[in-house]
């Protein structure tokens, strides 16, 4: 059941609280009332990231509807009452689409959300048109990143202390620091339970045995200087996904969607707008 939409700016999203499988989730939808003909883009965010973090990207994808939601215990979604996994959250995403009468979507995920995007496409193939995977892996078979970056990533100060984030941005994410200040200003710290359950949801998870059977046109975007998800993981995904292409953002780090936004947008648009031969 939808709550009364939260008033937003003209270019902003319609934000509602929705219930799916007993979980209350904060959902944002851009441009669903503008008569656009392209498939909506369903977006899965990175770990601990609230919908405001992706808002600039959502607003720049002005040619298509865009939908995303905060995971339990993240942003405006209440803490989870029980643990969840990728299967359950993919089902919740699918139920949200049914509630909004959305039959087919393009799907995109970044980092942790890239794993969710893969799982959603495998679990609900009839609802997926095209797929975009950014700075992500096939799960537990990943090639790990720089230990210094991984250790700082585990420090909760990256969510609550903008100066810490800016100081360690290059170590954490690699590549250019363009966009660091704006990014930290949009982040709302997840709850401890929300962050822990997100980590727990993907322990032991892998898409590797199933990806060869997925035939969705897929764009894999990786940062050439990603300190958290080395680009070799993109090569692994490309090998596993038959109908896929890989683009490396040469000097991009883990957050190349911030530092190389225009280059990323161009690649994403070209992929999503491609016509099947």
Automatic annotation (TrEMBL):
InterPro entries: AB_hydrolase, AB_hydrolase_1, AB_hydrolase_fold. This is Poly(3-hydroxyalkanoic acid) depolymerase. Residues 39-167, 190-260 form the AB hydrolase-1 domain. Gene3D superfamilies: alpha/beta hydrolase.
């Amino acid at each position: 059941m939808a709550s009364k939409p939260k008033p937003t700016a003209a270019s902003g999203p319609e934000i509602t609280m929705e219930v799916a499988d007993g979980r209350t989730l904060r959902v944002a939808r851009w441009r669903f009332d503008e008569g656009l003909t392209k498939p909506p883009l369903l977006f899965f965010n990175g770990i601990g990231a609230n919908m405001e973090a992706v808002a600039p990207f959502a607003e720049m994808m002005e040619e298509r509807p865009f939908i995303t939601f905060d995971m339990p215990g993240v942003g405006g979604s209440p803490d989870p009452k029980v643990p969840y996994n990728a299967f359950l959250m993919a089902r919740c995403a699918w139920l949200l689409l049914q509630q909004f009468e959305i039959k087919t979507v393009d799907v995109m995920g970044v980092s942790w959300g890239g794993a969710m995007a893969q799982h959603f496409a495998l679990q609900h193939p009839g609802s997926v048109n095209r797929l975009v995977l950014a700075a992500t892996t096939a799960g537990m078979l990943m090639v790990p990143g720089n230990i210094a970056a991984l250790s700082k990533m585990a420090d909760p100060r990256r969510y609550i202390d903008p100066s810490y984030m800016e100081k360690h941005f290059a170590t954490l994410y690699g590549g250019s620091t363009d966009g660091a200040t704006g990014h930290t200003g949009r982040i709302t710290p997840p709850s401890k339970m929300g962050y822990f359950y997100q980590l727990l949801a993907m322990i032991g998870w892998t898409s590797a045995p199933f990806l060869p059977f997925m035939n969705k046109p897929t764009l894999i975007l990786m940062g050439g200087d990603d300190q958290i998800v080395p680009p070799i993981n993109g090569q692994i995904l490309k090998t596993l996904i038959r109908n896929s292409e890989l683009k490396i953002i040469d000097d991009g780090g883990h957050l190349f969607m911030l530092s190389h936004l225009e280059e990323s947008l161009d690649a994403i648009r070209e992929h999503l707008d491609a016509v099947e031969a």
